[in-house]
Amino acid sequence: MTWLADPVLRGLTKSAISIVIGLLVWWIGRFVIGRLVRRVREGSAVFHKRGLRWVQPVLRPLDSERRVQRAETVGSILSSLLSVVVVVIVALYILLAFEVNVGPLLASLGIVGVAVGFGCQQLIRDFLAGIFITIEDQYGIGDVIETSEVIGVVESVGLRITRVRAKDGAIWYLRNGEILRVGNRSQGDYVDPEDPEGSTSPHSPLLTQKPDSENPTAQQNSEKTAQRASE
User: Which of 89, 88, 74 is nearest to 33 (CA)?
Assistant: First the structure.
């Protein structure tokens, strides 16, 4: 074919083939990631099989909202990573199709990447910490956690910020990269040192019982007891 002798047409043909292959790989990857995220969001019964029942005691059950959040976060990370990898590889193949020397370009991009990394290292640190917090299930929505700054209930977990409501009602926004240590009171068998018998536990009946001033039956009983004593 004489038209392939033209370097421009040959480069355009190779570029078109690279773009089509890149789009196909990207579509297949997004489809697989979407299926995995949907299965995790809906809850998978793979660990209920007879050969994998030994894993069940290790797994901590997650509520629907928390499972959906983890699935969407991990799916978003995987989709973004897939898109970046496909775009970079396709761009390199397009440059190679036009016989462009990519060696100096890669060296320049490496220098720029190092400079950006130094300038945004705190932001990158927060994002990486948020990814590992989500994947490792260190804590989630509804858990009571204790950090160096605050003790409260987790209201949301993002890739950069964790929002916690303290006992006094204040909302704390904690950067994930600054959380050096955290204790999850909801994962273990936490016992309040000030109340070892659990009388002030949220599940204790003493907290659900109304005082005599708010309980008409108890107030009537106390009045009858006082009348009998006076007689």
Answer: 74
Domain boundary among 43, 73, 101: 101
Q: Is the dihedral of CA 61, 67, 70, 76 positive or negative?
A: positive
Domain interval for residue 91 = 2-101
Q: What is the number of domains present in the chain? A: 2
Global confidence as pTM? 0.58
* 158: three-class secondary structure by DSSP: coil
Distance set, CA 156 to CA 61, 80, 89, 95, 170 (Å): 18, 21, 35, 43, 14
Contacts of 178 (CB under 8 A, 6+ apart): 126
Q: How does pLDDT run across 173-205, given as a tens digit for each residue?
A: 999 999 988 998 888 777 777 665 554 444 333
